[in-house]
Design a protein that fits this description.
alpha+beta; 3-stranded antiparallel beta sheet; elongated
Length: 68
């Protein structure tokens, strides 16, 4: 019984550790309006009238490119 609980605890700890390591914040992108040249920095599209123009970036100002 103790071996089973130990194995279960080790499995849970390993799962949590792997999840924490693989989790990363979402990238930011610069979006340009299709109607005028207005741009915004967002993690997701602001809507149908927008197209992705640059990215990905690490920050909300779209100034630090992601190193790949």
């Amino acid at each position: 019984m103790k071996i089973g609980l130990t194995a279960l605890a080790a499995g849970v700890a390993l799962t949590v550790a792997v999840s924490a390591v693989s989790a990363a914040p979402a990238a930011w992108y610069r979006w340009r309006s299709k109607f005028n040249d207005f741009t915004v920095c967002s993690q997701t599209s602001p809507g149908d009238g927008w197209e992705m123009s640059m990215g990905p970036f690490k920050d909300a100002q779209c100034s630090k490119p992601v190193n790949r």
